[in-house]
Amino acid sequence: MKWALVGASTIAGQWMVDAIRASGDEIVAVVSGSAERAQAFAAQHHIAHALTTEAQLDGLGVQAVYISNTNDKHEASVVRAAAAAQHVLCEKPLAVSLEAAHRMVQACAQAGVVMVTNHHLRHNAAHRAMREQLSKQALGRVSAVRLSHSVYLPQHLQGWRLSDKGAGGGVVLDIAVHNADSLAFLLGEYPTHVCAMTSNTGMAKGMEDTAMSLWQYASGITAFTHQGFNTPFAQTHLQIHGDKGSLHGAGILTQAPGGSLELSTDSGTHDLPLDNDNLYQRVVRNMHAAIRGEPHANADGAAGLRALAVAQAVLKSAASQQTEAVDYP
Ligand code: NDP
Over the chain, what is the mean pLDDT? Predict the structure, then answer.
């Protein structure tokens, strides 16, 4: 399949170029708002066409696009790709508003193209192993989740994410969407209500760099989630607790494969073996399956939309200082 990259972004260069090529696909073009950045990216990654507008993709035989420009630009890029009958792999958060994300999902559905949201974490081996344990009822009745997803935003990424609300900055849009998707993958449901507090500890300008929230699910499960940009020494954790067992994943909310997973039951605490694999390569492989019409495990456009709805409810709750219902379009 022939791909174009829309966005000369860090994640495209660090992970997605290799992930796309690992599936045997070809990247024919990169589009950037800056000719210099497009050329530098194309030269570094051996891509034939360095372009400054998506209109220039016409005639290149592009069948799929990977969209990783800033969050405010995703909508226009997705809608254009759908109109050109190109399959879409779009970065998260899908957009900065639910209305925009809804239009994106509709455009892809109407065009009959596959739309994937790049929620890579559900492909982590520990997530997959947790889901298997949950499906075997190994934890009994699940009551609680504790999720700690606070990281340190590296210096080279301390730009729009910390200062540009219009571009979709802030830790909630950046990380809470991943957490909503991971928990939906594991629990099979999205929260109905959230209660949140956010703060700016000095890293961000005019927005939050930390968020803590409680999420309530229709099944009665309650989840505690921590999102942060400002904790250089924190490890990520995901714990799921039931009346017959607990799962504890450590170091599993990351871009690289790895981490560990323990299952505790009345027979003791044991490490579960992890079938580690590149998360982004799994996204691309699953996208191929979806295009072939086969079952696949990716987050689709609707999943990206629901994850965004959760993040928006977290922001709303932090602003109103009230528990808020999640508004799913
Ligand atoms: P970057 O800041 O690296 O890139 C975003 C855009 O910023 C680029 O498309 C580029 O615009 C512009 N840009 C890049 N470098 C520069 C520069 N030196 N000077 C000026 N502008 C620059 O962001 P990320 O790669 O971190 O994130 C991109 C998207 O991917 C976001 O939606 C983010 O949420 C998502 N993401 C997803 C991850 C995942 O695991 N699923 C992980 C990390 C990010 P242009 O294209 O015009 O050149």
Answer: 98
Give me the mean pLDDT over the 225-237 stretch: 98
Q: Ligand 1 centroid vs 33 CA: distance in angstroms? A: 12
**For ligand 1, is residue 227 a contact (CB within 6 Å)?**
no
> Distances in Å between the alpha carbon of 126 and those of 179, 207, 295, 296?
14, 32, 21, 18
C-alpha 270 to ligand 1 mean position (Å): 39
**Which candidate, 239, 64, 88, 96, places its Cα nearest to that of 160?**
96
- Report how far residue 135's alpha carbon sits from residue 164's, in angstroms, rounded to the nearest whole number: 41
**Ligand 1 site, residue 33, Cβ cutoff 6 A:** yes
Task: Evaluate if pTM is beyond 0.90.
Answer: yes
Within 10 Å of residue 33's Cβ, how many Cβ atoms? 13
Instruction: Count CA within 13 A, CB hemisphere, residue 49.
Output: 23
Output the CA 146–ligand 1 centroid distance in Å.
29
d(CA 104, CA 169): 20
